[in-house]
Design a protein that fits this description.
The chain has 427 residues and is α+β, with helices and mostly antiparallel strands. The protein contains 6 helices and 24 strands.
Amino acid sequence: MGITVPKSLKLLLSLVILLGATGILWAQTPAPSPAAQIPGVIGEVKNIDTASNQMIVRAESGVLSTVILNEKTQYKRMAPGAKSLTGATDITLSDVGSGDRVWARWRPGTDQKTVPAAQLVVMSKADLAKKQEEERAEWRKRGVSGIVSSVNASTREITVSSSSLSGQSQSVVIPITDKVLMRRYPPDTVPKYSEAKPSTFDEVKVKDQLRALGDKSADGTHLTAEEVVFGTFKIAGGTVTEIDAANNQIKINDLTTKKPLTIVFKPDSIIRRLPQGAGMMFGGGTGPGGPGGGAQGAGQGQGRPQGQGQQAQGQTAAQGQGQRPQGTGPGGGPQGGGMRGGSMADMLERLPTITIIDLKVGDTILMSSLPGADPTQLTAIQLVSGAETLLAMAAARSQQGGPRPQGGGGVDLNGSFGGMFGGAGGP
């Protein structure tokens, strides 16, 4: 596989390459490009109609396809990560469920819109979830995260720094070789690990949020990376001036620019509320976990399954059932994003989720985003309402020599909160 293939697609691509190359179904001569030679649909099962023997499959692109089945269709269950169908088990249509990943295949030359699929290769939702959790655990154990503090073009090294609100900081140097898988989150999206785009060392910029997986040196100052995912994230804050629940957006008076800013919520956006008296949650205002922050670790990680927004009173409410969208999350930034053991990112993750209709004009919010082309509009990754306590803590730290304020808000939002409200994450 090429080094620019997203990890989450390797399972499906292995099906295409390996099954096609070995000619499993029809014992045909291996073709140079089996994916192009063998007609098929790869994606997630959205619906199964056993009465009509039809299945709706959604591809990675979002395109929905109808797969016709009959009594001659073969069903094979393949374990995630398997390199061939050796060990795959024979199953029936009744063993296939919504959320499973499938590759529906047709015999060459047939019309897949009218002819039943000859074979359905299945990876179950439960098996995939287990595999993804194992990958998340690996990122938590072997990963580092933070804000890019320097990029050395001559040595091809990236330095990533993370620190807590209590002031502790740590830097990790990451050499980038041709073997490192580099990917970048696209702008104006709610980041998902599976949707990060192939990238290069040259695209990494100072102040980007970055997360890397690899082997750490004994002293923890260097990491030999296998994968790197990053993005140009922005933390914004301000006072809510208008709520448009029908269109899933709010307007705020931006804390830094003092100008109106539109915040758009997508189904995977998350809204949380910080309760009154929340300063005690953060060690009485001394920073995450009290003096000294938490134990240094791999970051918040992606230990929760993908959270999906829900419908509330007929409107899409940008909440996540206490779960983070896959590939997003407070792991990946400084000030707790790269720290564990009672960090602010950990504590914010435990806050209850709310919906857009729970917000009120006058609320103070902080939120993360991947800025797009329109500077007057941001897509929310994660938003926290009732953020006065957080801003007061950051302002106090700034007076003690922390990140210098930018603009008129009195707080450097990116420097103080980068990564806490959703940033560069792993699987």
